[in-house]
Amino acid sequence: MPKSLNHQSALEDLHAMAGNLKADFKKMAINNVGDLLWYFPWRYDDLSDIKKIKDLSANELSSLKVKIEKIKVYRSFRQKMMITEIMASDDSGQIQATWFRQKFVSQILKAGDEVYLSGKAQKKGLFWTLINPNYEKVKANPIHSARLVPIYHLSGKLSQKQLRFLMDRALKALPYSEDPLPVDILNQEKFPWLHESLQEIHFPANEKKLLTATKRLKFQELFYLQCKYQLAKKDYQSRPSYQIALNDKIINANIKSLPFLLTTDQQKALYDVLSDLSQTRPMNRLIEGDVGSGKTIVAILAALNVISYSQQVALMAPTEILALQHFKNITKILPKKYLDELAIITRSNWQIGNGRKISKAELLTEISKGKIKFVVGTHALIQEKIKFDKLALVIIDEQHRFGVRQRKTLKEKNKGDKVPHLLSMTATPIPRTLALSLYGDLDISLIKEKPAGRQAVKTYIVPENKRADAYKFIRDKIKLGQQAFVVCPLIDESDTLGVKSVKKEYTNLNQEIFPELKIEMLHGKLKSEEKEKIMADFKKNKFPILVATSVIEVGLDIPGATIMIIEGAERFGLSQLHQFRGRIGRNDQECFCLLFTTDKSQLNKKRLTAMTKSSDGFELAELDLELRGSGEIFGNKQSGLIKLKIARLTDIELIKKAQQWAQEILNNKKYLSQENLQKTLQKLKTETHLE
Ligand code: ADP
Ligand code: MG
Questions:
Q1: CA 588 to ligand 2 centroid distance, Å
Q2: CATH assignment of 248-447, given 3.40.50.2300, 3.40.50.2000, 3.10.290.10, 3.40.50.300?
Q3: Which of 158, 159, 193, 354 makes a 20 to 30 Å CA pair with 15?
Q4: At residue 81, what are phi and psi to the nearest 5 degrees?
């Protein structure tokens, strides 16, 4: 047995290991003993019930305990293949087992040995036979047989047996005494200790112990995640922000001048934000609202409140098109006197709200001197050498498109010691549970209610044989002056910008289907000015059909577009599909979303049918989470998603428990003085800063 090890020990400390095996482990992200122990089985074979040979049934996974009577090794005549054959028996009968190309077997098994065999038996004439069964000599604690046997996802040439062997060694070599969770938690929650939990999840004594162990390991993961969030929150809140009172007069007047009434949810969200701003403690709030629920106006009103006290606001959007749309929108909403203090900066574009001509250098100076108060932009806001004078509020639109680091950089743009208030917005409807686990450090305002008069987008799954009808339907609508989007999924991994897929669809539509119509395409390879131009033209209804990749996913307003075709709908998450169709649900006309799919699986049918029935982004997100896991909610481009090894974001009760305990532990000196907890928390803090 190896010497005593810890989680950081190298895999070689467990057993000598060939280079290619190490490479296989690396592919599985297992680089040390700790990684190995946290690599969990994805299922178990129940071999705990030992059968008698006479009770075997054909083709059923069964487990036997037998004694080897005879063993024979020979080469097959034609293929020169090594074959090992045994005859074995228990007190009820005889069985033959054969292994092909496994010469180790004959070196391990000898006549007279007692062994466990497991596999699917077949009857050949009078005899039961097993082909390539699992085998293990009978001993006190078998790991491959006669129990719940763990089955792992593997990589390369690594075998289940090798992995179990190493896992067993690691468990035996690891000291029993240490546990990273505070003892009070273990006692009060009646959790088994870490070592026992790891033992039980890999080699469970029974189902009940397996469940308990799983729960404890999930808890540990969630608990430290919550600790990390709460530490980050404390850290952010340890520096003061600007205290900005409510400027009723100006805010109320502006609300009155809007061409619509704010919904109750918008008012509530605005109230949340304005109350946060009036504190010295920095705000860290997320406005979550379905597509078209009207988040922007809330942010603009909050910004107006800030600039009315001569402090600065930065609004960052994920794409240039969107930044420009916001900028134009803001110029319509802000009182005229502020337009000279409004600017947009993207990599290729800068302007002042009232059209005043300015060089880029002058603009940067005006921002650093505090003359420009409201800056709208893209990532350029972080990358450019922009310094603010008194940046009091940072607004991040479609925040899930930005990484933690990017958000942090923007927060650090101030000259002095103060940190800005932070307001994030997302149209990705994050289920409450997911929000809790993803954004444990944020306060959340929900805008669930849609502005009055909005209609749901009528959504249909169109079978391939109705495709021609769908095109006719579109042609008729276009005759009435309406417009259509055609969204294409990426064809293959290498086509990250969607050039191939869009071109293919464009050519088809342009040459075969609608030769008489003007069609344009939009994909990631186009320069941003080209994209701008196309979107601007589409917005002005200069052409009726736009073929695009998922570039159109975020926040764009195209009032004339009433139809959307989505090709390869199975490739998108429900939330993403819902986001797409949000592009056309923004006017008073009847809108249609037509889904095409080639995937005939039940799962896909269930997902897409949900699209046709529900227009509630939150509900769809919950369903996606349930059916396909959290990654799907955001699509693949998501940055900053957390990766969980065992817990699931749907483990609501455990998440709540973990959150409560994290609060209790982090606010109680009694715990904080415990040395090993201190160490762990210190580690979490550094990890947080690395993000
Ligand atoms: P999102 O929440 O998806 O970012 P926007 O803020 O872009 O949505 O709002 C979508 C559209 O709805 C905009 O044109 C906006 O002017 C309009 N809008 C916002 N609030 C209301 C409201 N209360 N009533 C009617 N229209 C509204
Ligand atoms: Mg938006």
A1: 18
A2: 3.40.50.300
A3: 193
A4: -95, 140
